[in-house]
Amino acid sequence: MSRVALYSGTFDPLTNGHLDVIRQGVALFDKVVVAIGVHPGKAPWLTFDERADAIRAAAGAEGF
After folding, report:
1. Which of 5, 8, 24, 29 could form a disulfide with 35 if both were Cys (CB 3.0 to 4.6 A apart)?
2. Closest CA to 28 of 40, 20, 37, 36
3. How distant is the alpha carbon of residue 56 from its chain centre?
């Protein structure tokens, strides 16, 4: 049985703190799912796609 972690947040913007939590999760779990929260009542600084791209780019650069 694999161990899966779920890390949810707005990631608006993605910070080094977020990356640190992901890095620690990767060390402890077989898989880390990063879920981007969307709040219809708030106007985010970055679009959902921009946040997703930033997470993918950072994860690739970190070698996750």
Report:
1. 8
2. 20
3. 8
CA–CA separation, 64 and 59 (whole Å) = 5
Q: Structure tokens of 36?
A: 């981007």
Contact 5, 25 (CB under 8 A): yes
DSSP state letter for 30: S
Q: List the chain pLDDT tens, one digit each, 64 residues.
A: 999 999 999 999 999 999 999 999 999 999 999 999 999 898 999 999 999 999 999 999 888 8
Structure-token pair, residue 60: 């690739």
Say what the pTM is.
0.87
Token reading at 19: 């990356």
